[in-house]
Every structure is written in C-alpha cells, then in structure tokens.
Amino acid sequence: MPVIGMNFKSIEAKINKVVKGRIDVNSTPVIKNIEERELNIIGKVLGIEFEFKTVYNPDVGSIQLTGEILYQTDKAKDI
Hints:
Blueprint: E1 3-15, E2 24-39, E3 43-57, E4 61-71
Antiparallel strand pairs: 1-4, 2-3, 3-4
C-alpha cells in the first residue's frame, strides 16, 4: 500500500560556524505518533507524525524536520 501524502510542519536549519577538515554527520529519525484516520474518498489511513534530526560534529550546524505522512494499509490494526 502506498504513501498517499506528506506534510512538513516545520523545517529548521542552523549554521553555527564554518570549519575545515572532518565533519561527522548523525541523522536520527523518530516516529512521534501513529493514529488511524478516516478520509472521505480513500477510507482509513494511518497518520504518522515524525521528526528527523541531523547533527554535525564539530558543531557546525543542525537540521530538523517535523511532519506527517499519510499511509494507506490493510494492516492498520497490526501496525
């Protein structure tokens, strides 16, 4: 079953400083909430709220996205 929609609630990016040399990148996806929803045309879907953070080391900046994905499945109860 497909992803039928995606909505960003916030996008934040920061640049703290410019450095030369090695930069380590650490990305962390987090599912904040999952709930079943009823859409008029499609029927039942899952609303999956997420957060995706990327942090750089040394502290040159960060990126954080939050949003929601609408996912259609026959196994909503199992998920």
